[in-house]
Amino acid sequence: MTMPTQRNPWRSTITEVRPNQLHTYGVDQQDLIRQFSYEEMVFLLLRGRKPTAPEATLLRAVILSHASHGITGQSTLAVRMAADCRSNFLHALIAGFSVGAGDYDQGALRAAMEQLQQLAEQPPAELTDCVRARLGRGEKFIGFGHRFLFHERDPRAVTLVQLANEVGFAGRHLELVRRIEEVLAAEKGVYMNIDGAGGAILLDLELNPAIAHLIIVVGRAPMYAAAYLERLAEGHPPFPRIEVADLVPENGQHGPK
Questions:
Q1: For the residues 160-169, what does the mean pLDDT come to?
Q2: Cα–Cα dist 74/227, whole Å
Q3: Can you tell me whether residue 197 is helix, strand or coil?
Q4: Domain tally for the chain?
Q5: Do 100 and 145 sit in the same domain of this protein?
Q6: What CATH number is attached to the domain comprising 143?
Q7: Is 117 exposed, middle or buried (0-12, 13-18, 19+ CB in 10 A)?
Q8: Distance CA 85, CA 91 (A)
Q9: What is the C-alpha to C-alpha distance for residues 257 and 250, in angstroms, rounded to an integer?
Q10: How many CA atoms lie within 13 Å of 131's alpha carbon, on the beta-carbon side?
Q11: What is the domain range of residue 210?
């Protein structure tokens, strides 16, 4: 006896498809194209509703804060090296995001959000003691400090917090990150960075840390395109000689090649 094949069709409540019509969470996509900004569309897809003006402003700001960050990061160097190898931009883009996916680069946003969630479970009256105890154990606080020592305060983080104040946006995670910063500044002279400020805002927008890389992807991709085109325009031949640190250089000393 042949058993009937069990069918499990995939279903989604995000977009309803009708003849000549598309509705995303009840909003006609013709209206979306005409009326929504990009950050409003992102928010609609993730939260199922149009954001308020302050919510849209803060999401736009967090996305944009990741756009231009210089070329010294390993992820951008990977894009430039892909250009040197004459890889097409898609492969260069993938290289940049793959190299930067660790906790100390692009993955820091997600890691900071998850750590803030854990710290938010701490009773407010015990937060200061908790932060000091973790410092005493040598634990790191993701979302604080900067690899460039000349940045006493990450200017992007400062602007994000200022903007939240200006538009009247507040939440428990923004308050939490401010309180943590107070302790770290007093104890270590360390202030929040883009991942601490942006991560707190995203949590207060009720975005899931599991998709934190989305913000990196949509924010940083244009920078990668600019870095790729810039490198091609420099006209270097394939495999140009670059300064790197050899493990065993010819003169026996560590240094640039």
A1: 97
A2: 13
A3: helix
A4: 2
A5: yes
A6: 1.10.230.10
A7: middle
A8: 11
A9: 9
A10: 26
A11: 74-233
- How far apart CA 247 and CA 59 sit, in angstroms, is 44
pTM value is: 0.86
With both helix axes pointing from N to C terminus, report the angle between 74-84 and 212-233 in degrees, rounded to the nearest 10.
Answer: 40
Q: To which H or E segment does residue 246 belong?
A: none
144 three-class SS: strand
- Reported as a pLDDT band with limits 50, 70 and 90, residue 254 is very low
Residue 60 has pLDDT above 80, yes or no: yes
Distances (CA, A) of 48 to 40, 78, 167: 11, 36, 22
Counting every residue written for the chain, the total comes to 257
Instruction: Give backbone dihedrals phi and psi of 187, rounded to 5 degrees, phi first.
Output: -85, -35
Q: pLDDT (tens digit, 9 = 90+) per residue, 185-212?
A: 999 999 999 999 999 999 999 999 999 9
11-47 pLDDT, tens digit per residue, is 889 999 999 999 999 999 999 999 999 999 999 999 9
More confident residue, 137 or 254: 137
Q: How far apart are CA 157 and CA 191, in angstroms?
A: 9
Q: Is residue 6 part of a domain?
A: no
